[in-house]
Every structure is written in C-alpha cells, then in structure tokens.
Design a protein that fits this description.
This protein has about 80 residues and is mostly beta strands. It has one domain: Immunoglobulin-like (Sandwich). It has no helices and eight strands. The protein has strands spanning about 1-5, 10-20, 20-30, 35-40, 45-50, 55-60, 60-70, 70-79. It has a five-stranded antiparallel sheet with strand order 1-2-3-8-7, with no helix packed on it. The chain has a three-stranded antiparallel sheet with strand order 4-5-6, with no helix packed on it. A hairpin with a 3-residue loop joins strand 2 (about 10-20) and strand 3 (about 20-30). The two termini are about 15 Å apart.
Length: about 80
C-alpha cells in the first residue's frame, strides 16, 4: 500500500510504502546530501534542509535506517 503525506511549510511530498514486515518512507528534497540533517524522535522524523527549512513527518514504527542519495531521503523501519 502506498500512502502520501505532506511535510513542512512548502508542503513537500512524502510517500510511504507499506510491506508485510517493513515500511519505507521516501522524500525527494531536491538538495545535495550534505545539505540535509535528519533526526528521529519517537514517531517523528525531523529533517533540516540547508539549516533553514525544517520538515516533520510521522513514522509508523521502529526506524531501522535513514539514508540520503542525491537529495532523496529514505527512511526504513519495521512494523
């Protein structure tokens, strides 16, 4: 199942994929990886872009990994 949510003042698009034993959240943030800082607190992922823009979105469970590649943030976890 694919779910969508929006995060931040500019309503950036975040997509969530649910699988049997895991979930994946992906967001194309449009900036280089060195301009992103990600922290997960409880069930909320907090993303700082260019030290200026802060985005927050909910995560549905335990976070296993957080990766960025060419400005795409990928958060993986288990149900």
């Amino acid at each position: 199942m694919v779910r969508q949510q929006y995060a931040g003042e500019d309503e950036r698009f975040v997509r969530r994929y649910d699988y049997e034993d895991e979930w994946v959240i992906a967001a194309d943030l449009g900036v280089g990886d060195d301009h992103l800082d990600v922290d997960v607190v409880g069930e909320t992922a907090i993303v700082l872009v260019d030290e200026e823009t802060e985005l927050e979105f909910e995560v549905p469970g335990s976070v296993e990994s957080v990766d960025t590649n060419n400005g795409v943030l990928v958060v993986r976890g288990t149900q």
